[in-house]
Write a structure and sequence with these properties.
The complex is a heterodimer of chains A (174) and B (191). With 174 residues, chain A is mostly helical. Chain A is 70% helix and 0% strand. Chain A folds into two domains: 88 residues, no CATH class; 63 residues, Arc Repressor Mutant, subunit A, CATH 1.10.10. Chain A is built from eight helices and no strands. The longest helix of chain A has 27 residues. With 191 residues, chain B is α+β, with helices and mostly antiparallel strands. Chain B folds into two domains: 49 residues, no CATH class; 119 residues, Immunoglobulin-like. Helix content of chain B is 29%, strand content 31%. Chain B has five helices and nine strands. Chain B has a five-stranded mixed sheet, with no helix packed on it. In chain B, a hairpin with a 2-residue loop joins strand 8 and strand 9. Classes of the chains: A mainly alpha (174), B alpha+beta (191).
């Protein structure tokens, strides 16, 4: 990609961004639990990745996921420390890529979700609500509801499978 | 590299454990590297993330209802939600409403729950059959049941009386622990 004509290079970089941005965003949501911070992570990690590709330092496609994983870990630490490499990277790449909505989350019908939540057994609904609201591990939810952590995990798995089937359709199960 | 099809898909239950930070460090790293290289598995995690986001939105917009913990109510307030709270003793009653500025309403029902094996909540109101919610979560040590009703539904209620009854259930039968009466009046901007 680093030796390609500008148009070809740009299209390839945009495609790479389109594919990787949602995955990096998920990593960010999991570790930073914040949409804005996750969006920052996407921009920083992918710009650093593209910078490396343009410099010809990342030529083996098989190593891309490993490299991006390493960058994600490093930038999450940096974001937690309040580091700011973003501005310089934005100046280099910001106007060159069409990536405004590349990491936009999928949407589904909130009314459908509410209907599915309403139909969960009370105990499952409580566990789902308390688990997802601030994404606490099972031990913390368990203590608050007079349940064991193992019990919460079982209830949570069952409830989330039910919700997913209800919201996405039965075919979602794998 | 960044394949979409996957020969070794991660089980959805593992993705759930990953999302809630329940995996050990080595397993978490393995899953993360796989997710960054695998569009199919990442898509399934995206479904989970979307449900999580949707559930949080239901709570924030006052559509969610559940029996929750006191600690959870504290976290709602810490997250900036405006709370209207009613505390009732056993067999107590209260005049209640919901104002336009209220994000959530919480009712805290004091009750002696020592030795209770299963707890049901029966809601009586209007002319319909009582609504019995079986096996609600509770911690006997808390000496209360915390109910988060749907604020969205409360806003639609006319002036009415609703009674919540807590019922203990065990092998020997059931017994009413206490009744709690809510005399609801809808918000009247010029009343």
């Amino acid at each position: 990609m680093s030796d390609a004509a500008p148009d070809v290079r740009r299209a390839a970089e945009t495609e790479l961004y389109r594919r990787l941005a949602p995955r990096v965003r998920l990593y960010g949501l999991r570790h930073l639990r914040d949409e804005h911070a996750a969006a920052d992570l996407v921009q920083q990690v992918l710009m650093m990745t593209l910078e490396r590709i343009r410099a010809g330092k990342l030529r083996e496609p098989d190593r891309l996921a490993s490299y991006v994983f390493g960058m994600c870990r490093m930038v999450v630490l940096e974001i937690r420390r309040g580091g700011a490499r973003r501005e310089r990277l934005l100046q280099t790449f910001g106007e060159d890529l069409e990536m405004a909505d590349a990491a936009a989350p999928p949407r589904f019908d909130q009314e459908r979700l509410q209907h599915c939540m309403d139909n969960l057994p009370e105990r499952e609904r409580a566990v789902v609500l308390m688990s997802f609201f601030d994404e606490k591990p099972s031990a913390e939810v368990a203590g608050a509801l007079g349940l064991s952590a193992g019990n919460v995990r079982v209830i949570r798995h069952r409830a989330i499978e039910r919700l997913r089937d209800c919201v996405m359709g039965e075919g979602a199960r794998t | 590299m960044i394949a979409h099809a996957c020969n070794t898909p991660i089980a959805f239950s593992t993705l759930v454990d990953y999302w809630f930070g329940e995996l050990d460090e080595a397993e978490e790293a393995r899953i993360e590297e796989h997710l960054l290289g695998c569009g199919g598995c990442a898509e399934r995690l995206e479904e989970l993330a979307a449900i999580a986001s949707g559930v949080r939105a239901l709570v924030r917009e006052g559509s969610a209802h559940a029996v929750v913990s006191a600690a959870f109510v504290e976290r709602l307030v810490e997250n900036g939600l405006r709370l209207r709270e009613y505390r009732l003793p056993p067999n107590g009653s209260v005049n209640c409403t919901i104002l336009p500025d209220d994000d959530i309403v919480v009712t805290r029902l004091a009750a002696s729950l020592q030795g209770v094996q299963r707890l049901d909540l029966v809601l009586q109101g209007g002319e319909g059959e009582p609504n019995r919610i079986q096996n609600i979560p509770f911690d006997a040590a808390d000496k209360e049941v915390v109910v988060l009703p749907s604020a969205k539904r409360l806003r639609t209620l006319p002036k009415c009386k609703q009674i919540i009854q807590l019922v203990a259930v065990d092998a020997g039968g059931e017994r009413v622990i206490a009744d709690y009466t809510f005399n609801h009046t809808p918000f009247a901007p010029h009343g």
